Amino acid sequence: MTRPPRKEASQSRVSRRHFLAGLGATGALVALEGCGLTPTRRMETEPELLESADLIVERRTIQIRGRQTEAVTINGTVPGKPVRLREGEDAVLRVLNLLDVDTSLHWHGMILPPGMDGVPGVAFRGIAPGELFTYRFPVRQNGTYWYHSHSGFQEQLGAFGSLIIEPAKPDPYAFDVEHVVMLSDWTFDDPMRILARLKKSSDYYNFNKQTIAQDGLLKILENRVSWGRMRMNPTDLADVTGATYTYLMNGTAPVDNWTGIYSAGQTVRLRIVNAAAASYFDLRIPGLEMTVVQADGQNIQPVTVDELRIAIAETYDVLVTPKGGRAYTIFAEAMDRSGYASGTLAPRVGMSVGVPARRRRPLLTMKQMGMGGMAGMDMPGMSAKKPMDMPGMDKPGMNMPGMNMPGMNMPGMNMPGMNMPGMNMPGTATASEAPGWARSVEHGPDHHGAGNTRVAKSTRGRLDEPGIGLEDAPHRVLVYTDLRRLIPRETEPPVDRELELHLTGNMERYIWGFDGKKFSEASTPIPFKYGERLRLTFVNDTMMSHPIHLHGMWMELVNGAGKDQPRKHTINVKPSERVSVDIDVDARGRWAMHCHILYHMDAGMFRVVEVS
Ligand SMILES: [Cu+2]
């Protein structure tokens, strides 16, 4: 009986039945044992396959905070094996699935053929148990990326790793040493149970509910009344919080203090990746300013900040120059302030300087929800004039507590709208002077049906706002208007077509979708035309931020930078925000587009885009 030469075959199946031998006999297995982890079950795979695999997806017991827990690992660890490629080469990545369910690896942010993108059900069928799948694609970009499983909840269970692509030509900035800083959220709970609880009660994990001591009774009552009507809670910044999650830096809990080493005088490049399933982080290094040189793997004009918010699936590269001999804390606080990941930058292991004082949990205000009448402008004394349109809300003109009580329900009354370019006040005489991306737009008559509980009366660009909880930061915080590509486009081609997509949801039923439909209700893919330049506008009708990721093609963020507008693979869309991206539709085939909050994607905020 002849067998196909497995190393050459792009897919091969293993018959587990006839293979019990070879335990411990292969290089791959020895390498896995080297990381100090005990396999939870014996492998019954052909040594030949183990040897030829570069990445092995497998359930293993790992330790987090000193506690044993089951993870989906890649080569035995969380994060998985770091993958390093070189621009200009042809990548060949052999992935062996030792799980008892299908898996997949998706190369997040890579431009590659649809069949290599790794999204089961889109242009790829997944990797069956025991199968070796070979990904092959030309590498025509460089920078910091990551990869992760696109199957089930494997990503939440640890199936992700960094993907670093060395540039063909030297980087345009100098650094002496580099570290990946991969942020994630770990749960000792079963993600299926988390989702089931979210479906039962969307604020199950919202242990941050207001307390009288912190917030005062009056404020709470005001908030209860208005927020109760919207079936949300003003602390609803994350579906799953630090009460459930342990936040990790490079797979390490704060107590175990991951340490990146530098020597005196060195410039350090930190490749920051948010690989969390459902957590945004605000990252800073007290005592050090950070010069951001890359966003989503793309070189940008350097911008120096003290803090940055990193949405799920985004990457930022920053340069820092520590003063020799000192230790610094890399502090990544969850957006809802319910916890943090942290580590240390130091000349040697064992140093630490502790974490900074924790900040107050921010409240999502009516203003930030676009409920303030004139979007972004809460005028003291202004009464609520039909502040929102909500299907099922029968008194549109009602007096919303908090809407007309200046100073009472508005943490952050600093009116971010006031320092807008061009004093952007949509609805006033100066509205025409607002930059195009910032303009306020009224919601149309379509309220997106039963899959949506609310529409924002008006939405506007908020690209120059640091976001909830950071408005009052006493230091520089990165905003999307700071992002300008390093090498400008030669031309600014006209847009051929515009398309608007609303991000919608029904929190009570935990349904998420686009235009009121969850994925299972969307009968056809969204058609893109090959060769067109498409302006896609995301309108967020929900009260949560959503990191939207398009596979296969770059999105150019329309942020007023013209030929300098940056390319991104993941765009954060704030509550009541509208954000446009320009897409050169240059990749035929079917591609995924979805929210990168794993539970939102699973609950329906996912679409297939078809380029024909
Ligand atoms: Cu989402």
Descriptive report:
With 612 residues, the protein is mainly beta. Among the domains are: 11-166, Cupredoxins -  blue copper proteins (Immunoglobulin-like, Sandwich); 481-611, Immunoglobulin-like (Sandwich). The protein has six helices and 33 strands. The protein has helices spanning 27-33, 47-52, 191-200, 212-215, 217-229, 598-602, and strands at 11-12, 55-64, 67-74, 83-86, 90-97, 106-108, 132-138, 143-148, 160-166, 177-187, 245-249, 258-261, 268-274, 281-284, 290-295, 298-305, 307-310, 315-320, 328-334, 340-346, 441-442, 458-459, 497-506, 511-514, 526-528, 533-540, 546-550, 555-557, 567-568, 570-573, 578-584, 589-595, 606-611. The strands form seven sheets. It has a six-stranded mixed β-sheet with strand order 11-10-13-18-15-16, with no helix packed on it. Strands 24-23-26-31-28-29 form a six-stranded mixed β-sheet, with no helix packed on it. Strand 2 and strand 3 (67-74) form a beta hairpin. The protein starts with 10 loop residues before the first strand and ends with a strand. The relative contact order is 0.11. Residues 1-42, 227-231 and 372-431 have low confidence and may be disordered. Bound molecules: copper (II) ion.
